[in-house]
């Protein structure tokens, strides 16, 4: 794991706790790059970054989410057999790893009363103190990253690119439909499109 991945993982620890509690997804980290000029609009076609075979169902889910986000931001689909003005290449990666330990589900509580110790000395225990029993268990997490590059079809010159990533516990993702997760990443990526170039933001 490289230094950037370690920083991302560390930043996600607090979000993972909330994610486990609420059953939702943690915030998404987004970064975009462009030349700072107005981004041209026109017709666009979404296609995979590397066309090595038939598109998987999962890729089609993410491609559809990206296409929806593009249409909301002023692009349109080419009609019939006409060639698009732009091509949006899409890629996504997913990796499993062990995340920060989860708290032990068992604990013993001490609170409210007091006891005497030594020669008449009294020690009060209040406020409800609890101690975990057993070792904390690491939780399996999944990191997902969606990357998009928009380029002119005629000369393949890029005009905009960006990536969105999040990290979530496996059990949280199991409760969320793939279309919902794809839409979350795509919506975050195109938040306030084209966005500030080179700045990393967090989208909830």
Ranges where pLDDT stays below 50 over 5 or more residues in a row are 1-23, 103-134
Major sheet characteristics: 6 strands, mixed
Q: Give the total of beta strands.
A: 10
Total of DSSP H or I helical runs spanning 4+ residues:
4
Task: Summarize the structure in words.
Helices cover 26% and strands 37% of the residues. The chain is an alpha+beta fold. The strands form three sheets. A six-stranded mixed sheet has the order 2-3-8-9-1-10. Helix 2 (57-72) runs parallel beside helix 4 (178-189). The longest helix is centred in the N-terminal third of the chain and has 20 residues, at 3-22. Mean pLDDT is 77; it is low at 1-23 and 103-134.
Comma- or semicolon-separated keywords:
4 helices, globular, two-stranded antiparallel sheet, alpha+beta
